[in-house]
Fold each of these.
Amino acid sequence: MKSPCPQIVIRDLVISPPLFLAPMAGLTHLALRRVIKEIGGVGLLSTEMLAARRLPGENPAISSFLLRTEQERPLSYQMAVARAEDVAPAMAALHRLGADAVDLNMGCPAPALRQQGAGAALMEAPDTVRAIVAAARKSTNLPLTAKIRLGATLDEVKLRDFCLLLEGEGIDLLTVHARLRGESFVRPPRWEWVGRVKNWLSIPVVANGGIHSPADGARCLALSGADGLMIGRAAAEMPWVFAALATALHGAPPPVTELNLPSVYHRFADLLEAHFQPERRLGRLKEFTHYFQKNYAFGHHLAMAVQSSSSWQEARERAEVFFVKHEPKVVALGR
Ligand SMILES: Cc1cc2nc3c(=O)[nH]c(=O)nc-3n(C[C@H](O)[C@H](O)[C@H](O)COP(=O)(O)O)c2cc1C
């Protein structure tokens, strides 16, 4: 008998298969989330990071950070927060928006965030973290998760204490981007360190960093023993990566067996057109194209053509010209 698809359950939320979309600024908005969801294989979607201080004042009907559709479920909202007093009002806003889970950003090394004391800076401020997580736990019954890197240096005791603090204050699931704060994406991720974290904690642990294929996913799971995998850049390069992972790792194939690449790109652009204000579309198409072009041997031509477009129409026409001339047209999802 075929074993059922594995799942992670945190509070009332069932995440099945245990494959997570990583929060990515400028990328994990409505359009990419919808494309990924329509192809299938993803267990939990995510917004990009949202500043806790600004959340209560944002208008969800027009804010391009908050736009979403009912199809994007389950959807986790990621909060970037530096002060415990900002948590409760931000959480109230996320309840109004219908969040299925809330993630606390504790790993982002971007200097702008660190200067405010948010993101990776929080790993250096355990007392602030304790207050933030306690405030978050007090203000919601939703699944509450956190995303970290391994720290500023490889310091096992410090990392363990930090992870135990998060679990002790009521975090339901922890995602570990298996790199140090200052390490670039070029460096191979330290998946075995996710395994150490997994051994210290009782809550589910999700591994993140450098997973681009089912082979990467299998190796990461073998090295880390993680409960799930989180995918970032590969989700923008190949929105079907979740379907490929779900098929190969969890025996949960998507309904379709092959995809037309230009159709995936056009669907993404159509969703931007349908939901975003005209002035918010082109930048997002350029950002996505930077990743999507990696599917083509001459993808830099597509990237340059779209990058140098001065209007939405021009970008779409240039992309179409590229797709007519270049292979591949189709990608097989395999079963
Ligand atoms: C363009 C971009 C934006 C990102 N924005 C966020 C963010 O808003 N919040 C966050 O926690 N991590 C952010 N990250 C980090 C990713 O969530 C993820 O940890 C990282 O890309 C490693 O995973 P990957 O190798 O699968 O891409 C971002 C990464 C990229 C490339």
Amino acid sequence: MTSPTTTTTQPTTTADPSSTEAANRIERLQAAAHRIRHNALRMGEVQGQGYIGQALGVADILAVAYTDQLHYRPQDPHWEDRDRFLLSIGHYAIALYAALAEAGTIPLDELDTYGSDESRLPMSSMASYTPGVEISGGSLGHGLTVTTGMALGLRHLGNPARVFNLLSDGELDEGSTWEAAMACAHNGLDNVTAIVDVNALQADGPTAGVLRTEPVLDKWRAFGWNATRVDGNDIGALVAAFDAAATHTGSPSVIICDTRIGCGVPMLMEREKAHFMRVEEHEWQIARNQLDENLPR
Ligand SMILES: Cc1ncc(C[n+]2csc(CCOP(=O)(O)OP(=O)(O)O)c2C)c(N)n1
Ligand SMILES: [Mg+2]
């Protein structure tokens, strides 16, 4: 996003450099998201199944986070001044590995070990196994509680690092998420940015049928958060939301992202059983081809 500028120069026929810069930024992030999607398909093919739809759904969010917003050193994942990115949703590990490979923290070739014995890339995220993974996430509903504690600790230490938490709409079913939301706002933790992946789906079916969470935006606002809702597969909208959260002070920010399961691969977007997908051997190449046909979306 470009900030509004005032200028005394006359308009010229050449392109506005700030808008060219903004367009380049979006293009660069779309390309990163595309590679993240390919990384996810590469891992999915190793197992023939998995949470591929979610990974394709959050690829744009992760591209913006890891290649535009977070301050970190890819080769030094314990650097104490790094921004922390906490993945609550352990089953989304495949998405995080795809992003960490794009970031350069995990070697690309290592993706081929995904989910195998002795691999550093287990199917559910484990902080003790994988460089760049901040928390273990199999038991849902804990990410925002850890985020809140971490953010308090960083503030106490005078460390300006920020804490991001990617959580799912299913995690809004958990009381612990809302306790953390209250505590975070109570403490005015503006070093926190939560990102909610509203893919409208849970393991047991559509979120609206499992437990009604809407109106999500109003709920976060009522809990004292600086809340915004965007199309989570629109890189331009995501960049604007992340930029706004970065400068907001006085309360934590949440970016509610409406995403599409399988985004970028029409064949997978149409799957009825989307929470955990099985993809036939011959379908992986079709999926890759469809992904390549769809750039830029
Ligand atoms: C505390 C807890 N309860 C239940 C589960 C089982 N579980 C695994 S994934 C999942 C679905 C949660 O919803 P969401 O993360 O929105 O699912 P998705 O969008 O990936 O379909 C559930 C209930 C769990 N891992 N942890
Ligand atoms: Mg969901």
